[in-house]
Design a protein that fits this description.
380 residues; alpha+beta; A middle domain of Talin 1; 2 domains; 5-stranded mixed sheet; 12 helices; disordered N terminus
Length: 380
Amino acid sequence: MSSSLLHRARRLGALTAVAVVVPLAACSGGDDAAGSGEVTVTATEAECTPSATDIDAGVTHFRVTNKGKQSTELYVLRPDGSIVAERENIAPGIVVQVTAELTAGEYTLRCRANDSSDGITTALKVKGQATAQGDPRLTTALASYRTYVEQQSRASLALAGQLRDAVKAGDVAKARSLYAPSRVGWESVEPVAESFGDLDPRVDLREADLEGGQTWTGWHVLEKALWQGDTTEGMAPVADRLVADLEELVARVRKAQITPTSMANGAKELLDEVATGKITGEEEAFSHTDFVDMQANVDGARKVYTLLLPIVKDKDPSLVTRIDAGFARVDAALKTLRTGSGPADFKPYSVLDDAGRKTLADDVNALAEPLSGLAGAVVK
């Protein structure tokens, strides 16, 4: 997100209903979008008009046409402002499809032209109960993913505990060596972690996203002290709070509402984290361990893809070919930045120049584009 407000809003987004973005033909007016749950949306600088505002629960395909003169964004928001579904950078004249799995409740549809502060909103009502997905392989994939999320959360908690101990011992070198590894589990399942309201900002908020009067806590406070201040002084309470928050994460992931489409959207979101956030070097502004985060994001996306692969192979084999090729390109790019085989064995972010950042971003986006079709394939 380009603003701190939207950065925080994204981090409040939950997985109870999520979206996947599938680019469609520019200026197309045909009826090639899927299913009876289609809602067309006309967006301009002064308009955000859906073809229906009462929607049945289940899968809804929002077909969005930007008829304005500026790029626009589409968000489906819960009453608390958290993001259910989103699509940024919809250029003038472009049509995109956003597939969302919605439960009963009230939502807000928001179109924001050119990153305007508020945008135009329309109320949506979702009623009824969604029909359960019938493929037993989806049940298996969900169970396996829950196990993965809990394992990764526990791994981050364990290493954060060691990081806390090093901070309390005043051992800057050891604390530095534990900082990036402790974030790997978190980064691999970040979309799930973001579903728990303010837990994500408490753990992972960057200094650049702080708002007036907000207390800064979490990993990046420790990062700044360790690398910019070369000290652990005063950081014991921060480290204690980080461990406590990760303990809360482990306790809550068992009850997280996850669907096959939320899994798929989470994979795309992880790649967006790389292409629009990590690639700038702003995430790890002091330690420059951004490549560690990137690899964890990619690995988390790969896990989702692997679990859903048996279903997608049957429904859209050509999509599998494109996603496999995309992962191969990204893997090759990240391999050149490694110093060893460990999860944190990477060169500092500073080795990448502007051209290198663009190339890596292009590789990630080339994977994100077909991966954005994953949820649509799952619900075919």
